[in-house]
């Protein structure tokens, strides 16, 4: 699977067993400079998506799509009238490149590690669960009856 290419070798263990998956969803808006509802979906069997999403009115038919010799991407989305989110993601990937995106992600993970260390030194806060990637879950510690006063 090529998704490992986007990460770093130290994160590969998170994808252990991915070869047995039928699909894989990635929220591109997290680290790929895209809009909130941009998501990548890889499917082992594209036909499982194409059939339920197909929209085949007479005015969209043409010789090329009828011949089935090309991929008709109109069948790979929910509706023809929705925004083309894939274009922005494609431009991000082309303009930044894999190495710059890796560097960007590693930078965020490094900042999260630093933030986690700072929280560990603060007597008012605690890290609730161990950090994964760049997500640090923090909670205020109970200081006497300070919570009651709030």
Structure write-up:
Its cofactor is pyridoxal 5'-phosphate. InterPro entries: Aromatic_deC, PyrdxlP-dep_de-COase, PyrdxlP-dep_Trfase, PyrdxlP-dep_Trfase_major, PyrdxlP-dep_Trfase_small, Pyridoxal-P_BS. 38% of the residues lie in helices and 11% in strands. The chain is an alpha+beta fold and 150 residues long. It has one domain (3-44, 84-149). The strands form 2 sheets. A two-stranded antiparallel sheet has the order 1-2. It starts with a helix and ends with a helix.
What's the gist of this structure?
By secondary structure, the protein is an alpha+beta fold. It has helices at residues 3-6, 47-53, 63-67, 85-121, 146-149; strands at residues 23-27, 39-43, 125-127, 138-140.
Q: Which percent bin holds the helix content? A: 25-40%
Strand content: 5-15%
**Which spans of ≥5 residues are poorly predicted at pLDDT below 50?**
1-6
Radius of gyration: 22 Å
Instruction: Compute the number of helices.
Output: 5
Largest sheet: 2 strands, antiparallel
Shape: elongated
List keywords for this structure.
Pyridoxal-P_BS, 38% helix, two-stranded antiparallel ribbon, PyrdxlP-dep_Trfase_major, decarboxylase, 150 residues, alpha+beta, PyrdxlP-dep_Trfase, elongated, disordered N terminus
Strand-helix topology:
Layout: H1 3-6, E1 23-27, E2 39-43, H2 47-53, H3 63-67, H4 85-121, E3 125-127, E4 138-140, H5 146-149
Antiparallel strand pairs: 1-2, 3-4
């Amino acid at each position: 699977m090529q998704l490992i290419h986007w990460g770093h070798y130290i994160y590969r263990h998170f994808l252990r067993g991915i070869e047995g998956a039928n699909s894989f969803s990635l929220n591109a808006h997290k680290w790929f400079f895209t809009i909130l509802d941009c998501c990548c979906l890889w499917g082992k069997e594209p036909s499982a998506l194409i059939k339920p999403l197909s929209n085949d009115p007479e005015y969209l038919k043409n010789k090329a799509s009828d011949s089935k010799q090309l991929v008709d991407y109109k069948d790979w989305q929910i509706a023809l009238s929705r925004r083309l989110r894939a274009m922005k993601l494609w431009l991000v990937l082309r303009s930044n490149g894999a190495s710059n995106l890796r560097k960007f992600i590693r930078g965020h993970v490094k900042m999260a590690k630093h933030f986690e260390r700072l929280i560990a030194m603060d007597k008012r806060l605690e890290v609730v669960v161990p950090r994964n990637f760049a997500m640090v879950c923090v909670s205020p510690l109970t200081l006497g009856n300070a919570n009651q006063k709030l």
